[in-house]
Specification:
The structure holds two protein chains of two kinds. Chain A is mainly β. Chain A contains no helices and eleven strands. The chains are: A mainly beta, B mainly beta.
Chain lengths: 109, 114
């Protein structure tokens, strides 16, 4: 069983739809990182959180430490949101992150 | 803004060649990481370094070595490239210590070994 799992694996949405991507993990963590990877490879940090909720523009990330679960929401989705979204957890001990497999999002105009 | 640069975006090498991938960050970060990314497998940690001349093995270090002679530069070395090392290689850096530090990634190097 992978330590970090994401669902769905692939997601296609129409422009304007509300999108939710889920991340669950089975290890002790001190923080969780949501990342965005566009075609071509570059990875951009979206959020780093250890509790509660964070919002940046149309993006919202939540985490429930007790349930070992995080969600990334995109409101009013746009084709430029099309990317792979990656969840990564920072282990309680050590400097490492463990990465989920990613969710590929396509937003159609 | 933090900038992490990698020496090449695309690289084609032959089996058996020695390959050097360079990564430079400009924000005085202590930690630097090398990952490879393969379809369906996500990012996997090859090596990381938390200080100059210090290195730790990640999940898949076999066939790789690293060098960190200066704080800003972290090199990944494929001693004898093999076709199963064809992959996207990503470098990242972060501050240390503290739990609330983000990783900043370079643009990636897509390596093909023929």
């Amino acid at each position: 069983k992978n330590e970090v799992e994401q669902s769905p694996q692939n997601l296609t949405a129409q422009e304007g739809e509300f999108i939710t991507i889920n991340c669950s993990y089975s290890v002790g963590i001190s923080a969780l990182h949501w990342l965005q990877q566009h075609p071509g490879g570059g990875i951009v940090s979206l959020f780093m959180l250890s509790s509660g909720k964070k919002k940046h523009g149309r993006l919202i990330a939540t985490i429930n430490i007790q349930e070992k679960h995080s969600s990334l929401h995109i409101t009013a989705s746009h084709p430029r949101d099309s990317a792979v979204y990656i969840c990564a957890v920072k282990l309680t001990y050590g400097q490492n992150f463990v990465f989920g497999p990613g969710t590929r999002l396509s937003v159609l105009p | 803004d933090v900038k992490v640069t990698q020496s090449s975006r695309y690289l084609v090498k032959r089996t058996g060649e020695k390959v050097f991938l360079e990564c430079v960050q400009d924000m005085d970060h202590e930690n630097m990481f090398w990952y490879r990314q393969d379809p369906g497998l996500g990012l996997r940690l090859i090596y990381f370094s938390y200080d100059v001349k210090m290195k730790e093995k990640g999940d898949i270090p076999e066939g790789y070595s690293v060098s960190r002679e200066k704080k800003e530069r972290f090199s990944l070395i494929l001693e004898s490239a093999s076709t199963n090392q064809t992959s996207m290689y990503l470098c990242a850096s972060s501050l240390s210590p503290g739990i609330y530090y983000e990783q900043y990634f370079g643009p990636g190097t897509r390596l093909t070994v023929t």
